[in-house]
Amino acid sequence: MSRIGNNPILIPLGVDVNLEGNLVIVKGSKGTLSMELNPAVKVDIEDGKIKVSAKKGFERGSALHGLTRSLISNMVVGVSTGWTRDLEMVGVGYRVQGGGESLTLNVGFSHPVIIKAPEGIIFTVADNTKIKVSGADKILVGQVAANIRKVRPPEVYQGKGIRYTGEYVRKKAGKAGKAATGAAAAK
User: Euclidean distance between the first and final Cα of the chain, in Å?
Assistant: First the structure.
């Protein structure tokens, strides 16, 4: 039995939630999102609350109960306030240009890397090294941010690359540090 799945989802003002057959449609100021429900899960909308429950007789009903509730909750938050993911570039000469629909990344390659935003995603650039990915769909925002990070992930010797804001990159000692510790151990 899922503890998360049993919590009702409060529908904020300005958000409209409809259930059409096996499809949940959430509309708000940031956009419209929809999700197809698994037949093992039942969704009820009443008194400004969404209640998710597992149907009896389905093997995976209890496994999908909490997941479905979390996905619907993320949709409600996304269309009302939106989701953001912040990235930062670390390295000499690493910079980003653009914003809105596309980004141009200069990250040490012989050519700039151009990234186009999918529908529903907006890029914001600050200080030529900070990128903000925002949109209504939490999954899409996270995937686009991961794709940007994948262009030049942080490397472990100097820490250069694209990383999430606040991400800790553990650095390795390198050859000089290894030789110094090896020489001390040999004496």
Answer: 61
CA dihedral 9, 144, 32, 66 (to 10 degrees): -20
* CATH code for the part of the protein at 3-80: 3.90.930.12
Tell me how far apart the alpha carbons of residues 138 and 73 are, in angstroms, rounded to a whole number: 11
* CB neighbours of residue 144 within 10 Å: 21
- What pTM did the predictor assign? 0.86
Architecture of domain 83-164: Alpha-Beta Complex (3.90)
Please name which of 93, 169, 164, 166 lies closest in space to residue 133, comparing C-alpha atoms: 164
131 φ, ψ to 5°? -120, 135
Gap between the Cα atoms of 135 and 74, Å rounded:
12
CA 163: distance to chain centroid? Answer: 13
pLDDT tens digit string along 89-120? 999 999 999 888 999 999 999 999 999 999 99
DSSP state of 59: T
Positive or negative: CA dihedral 48, 43, 74, 26:
negative
